Task: inverse folding
């Protein structure tokens, strides 16, 4: 049952020994007694079938939380159960108010222990990516770090060695993960799909940096300047004069907000309006930790006022933090206005040779917050021949079309797809985007 083998004692028992039901863990090999005494047998019921009888109420194991991450309305918890075994990730879905809905869900296989240095309060290094996955750092026996991702199912782990040690994950978005190595090297690792391991697509000298969608933001060559570079094309997409009186030592990017810090001085630049604000960020609020008192400080800069251990959902606005009690995590909404639904990236390339049942067209749209969606496929005459619906995993839409019409036909040609996404929080208008794909 699960990762436990259940077995009764042998039929021949020493005098005075009660038969018991025992369990042995397939993970650790530890043996425990589930029921003592127990009995077993097969007997007829009134209708000739099998019957069940409740014999004990087994309490669920609590998860000892060693780390957390939250993105796209999903709260990821890393830790082990009180019953022992290896650590793993579990998750809760959060509603628009930040409340958990439903039961916790396993999101990884059993994992090797994450190694933390003595006194490293920032370990384990976790980053929820907003597409249903979470990235984390793992160190091997030689001390070398790898960036790993899990979350799409309970069996898959994707990996990219960094060749470095003593590093950090300062951020990530969609399939991109940022790694700052202890050697001073900064890398961007791309995990484009669940079927292949990661790939280092950029390696550079370490500076302040942030990734949102397909754009990486780094300090420019002049004071206060920040440059946005497209990670796929390598093109510079924007150069921003933030007004910072320094070269930023910390950058964060969410939607149109670009946060910078020089230590004692910090601010936010709104790329949509050109507005400069002293100390705020993300969906219109900034969450910071006082490293001395461990207080969380929230600033809402829609109004400019301040309200006053942990993770923030950059793809939804929730805040989660450890209470200091074993297994106890609190979630709260930020209480500030949510950004309108927007697309940060799309992977909609046609399938070479055309989609098929064994190799469907599998587009991915990364959004900035959770949504429900409808995808229609129309033929050259404008008739909708297939409609697909669903909800985002995190804040990512993943669809699959095998090239067949709703009536079972497969007709070669060019098809127009139209995606309509409705924000799950009901804040702001729907998002619509369209293009074409081909059936060969």
Result:
């Amino acid at each position: 049952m699960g990762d436990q083998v259940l077995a009764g004692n042998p039929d021949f028992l020493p005098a005075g020994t009660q038969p018991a039901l025992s369990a042995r863990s397939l993970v650790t090999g530890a043996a425990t007694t589930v029921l003592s005494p127990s009995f077993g047998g097969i007997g007829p019921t009134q209708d000739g079938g099998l019957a069940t009888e409740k014999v004990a109420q087994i309490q669920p194991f609590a998860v000892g939380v060693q780390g957390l991450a939250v993105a796209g309305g999903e709260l990821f918890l890393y830790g082990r159960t009180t019953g022992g075994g290896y650590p793993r990730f579990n998750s809760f879905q959060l509603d628009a108010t930040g409340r958990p809905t439903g039961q916790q869900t396993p999101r990884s296989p059993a994992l090797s222990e994450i190694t933390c240095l003595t006194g490293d309060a920032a370990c384990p290094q976790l980053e929820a990516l907003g597409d249903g996955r979470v990235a984390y750092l793992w160190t091997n026996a030689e001390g070398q770090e790898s960036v790993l991702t899990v979350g799409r199912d309970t069996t898959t782990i994707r990996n990219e060695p960094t060749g470095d040690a003593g590093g950090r994950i300062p951020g990530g978005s969609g399939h991109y993960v940022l790694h700052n190595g202890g050697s001073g090297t900064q890398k961007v690792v791309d995990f484009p799909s669940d079927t292949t391991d990661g790939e280092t697509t950029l390696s550079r000298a370490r500076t302040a940096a942030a990734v949102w969608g397909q754009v990486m933001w780094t300090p420019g060559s002049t004071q206060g300047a920040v440059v946005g570079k497209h990670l796929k094309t390598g093109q510079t997409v924007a150069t921003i004069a933030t007004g910072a009186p320094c070269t930023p030592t910390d950058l964060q990017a969410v939607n149109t907000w670009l946060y910078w810090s020089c230590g004692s001085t910090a601010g936010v630049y709104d790329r949509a309006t050109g507005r400069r604000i002293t100390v705020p960020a993300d969906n219109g609020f900034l969450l910071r930790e006082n490293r001395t008192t461990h207080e969380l400080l929230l600033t809402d800069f829609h109004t400019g006022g301040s309200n006053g251990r942990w993770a923030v959902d950059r793809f939804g606005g929730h805040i989660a933090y450890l209470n200091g009690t074993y297994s106890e995590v609190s979630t709260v909404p930020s209480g500030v206005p949510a950004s309108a639904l927007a697309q940060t990236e799309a992977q909609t390339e046609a399938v070479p040779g055309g989609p098929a049942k064994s190799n469907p067209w599998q587009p991915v749209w990364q959004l900035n917050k959770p949504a429900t969606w409808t995808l229609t496929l129309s033929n050259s005459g404008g008739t909708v021949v297939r409609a697909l619906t669903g909800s985002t995993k995190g804040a990512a839409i993943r669809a699959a079309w095998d090239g067949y019409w709703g009536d079972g036909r497969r007709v070669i040609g060019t098809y127009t797809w139209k995606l309509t996404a409705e924000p799950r929080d009901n804040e702001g208008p729907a998002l619509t985007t369209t293009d074409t794909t081909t059936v060969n």
